[in-house]
Amino acid sequence: MGHSYRAAGVSERFPIAVLVSGTGTNLQALLDTVHGREAEVVAVASSAARAPALERARALGIPTEVFARSGYEDRAARDAAMADWLAQRGVRLVVLAGYMELLGEAFLQRFPGAVINVHPSLLPAFPGVRAIEQALAYGVKVFGVTVHFVDAGVDSGPVILQRAVELPDASEPEEVLAALRPLEHALLPEAVRLFTRGALEPDAENPRRVAMRAVEG
Ligand code: GAR
């Protein structure tokens, strides 16, 4: 990637959007931590009209909008409408928090180097849907969470943060999810904090490697 990931000034709250599809516990973690501090959640977009995540945003008076795939001619039209809505709100970082749709290249180009995602596996293992079920079926003993930049592939962008947990006897998805939740809820806000501080930049030697830069404040 030929650009730096950062864009922040440190004196203002950094306007971010959160994209959701479901329950929204990761959105809630952002609302409880970085929102109103280093960042301001200025928009929450959902792929599903009935996502409980929307209520979490509405409870704080944050603008919400639904961009259901069925409401548009194709995915590109949906992406374009959503990108317009986010850009109108001055969004400088797009956070995928349980957003279960793929975003096309055109959307990503509207927010270059500024779309991040949380995924419930240690990527590159188990990308895509039902990651926890995939990991259980494989029989792994170590599970984990990845926060990464989003590229046009499926969960294939540069890794920002990862954390693992050993669960050698796990057999049920619910049990693994319960162990991963606290990791997700710590790592996603931490990645947002690092981004807004301008602390993330691609390693010059290998742009897949996200280097952490020490930044004051
Ligand atoms: C989270 O576990 C997140 O990692 C996962 O969906 C869940 C959403 O929970 N995302 C993916 O699987 C993306 N491929 P939430 O709605 O409670 O934040």
Which characteristics define this entry?
seven-stranded mixed beta sheet, binds glycinamide ribonucleotide, alpha/beta, Rossmann fold
The set of bound ligands, ions and cofactors reads: glycinamide ribonucleotide
CATH topology label? Rossmann fold
Number of individual domains: 1
Order of helices and strands: EHEHEHEHEHEEHEE
Poorly predicted tracts of residues: none
Through-space gap between termini: 27 Å
Major beta sheet summary: 7 strands, mixed
What does the average pLDDT come to?
94
Q: Under the CATH scheme, which class?
A: Alpha Beta
Query: Could you estimate the helical fraction of the residues in percent?
Result: 25-40%
- Strand segment count: 9
Multimeric status of the protein: single chain
Instruction: Write the CATH architecture name.
Output: 3-Layer(aba) Sandwich
Principal-axis shape = globular
Kindly name the structural category. alpha/beta
Going by CATH, the homologous superfamily would be: Formyl transferase, N-terminal domain
Q: What percent of residues are in strands?
A: 15-25%
Radius of gyration: 17 Å
> Strand order of the main beta sheet, please?
3-2-1-4-5-6-7
Give a written overview of the molecule.
There is one protein chain. The protein has helices at 25-32, 52-58, 75-88, 105-110, 131-138, 173-196; strands at 14-20, 39-46, 64-66, 93-96, 115-119, 142-149, 159-166, 200-202, 210-212. With 217 residues, it is α/β, with parallel strands linked by helices. It has one domain (14-200): Formyl transferase, N-terminal domain (Rossmann fold). The strands form two sheets. Strands 3-2-1-4-5-6-7 form a seven-stranded mixed sheet. Strands 8-9 form a two-stranded antiparallel ribbon. α4 links the parallel β4 and β5. α1 (25-32) packs parallel to α6 (173-196). The model has no long low-confidence stretch (mean pLDDT 94). The protein binds glycinamide ribonucleotide. Glycinamide ribonucleotide binds at residues 22-26, 53, 97-98, 118-120, 131, 184.
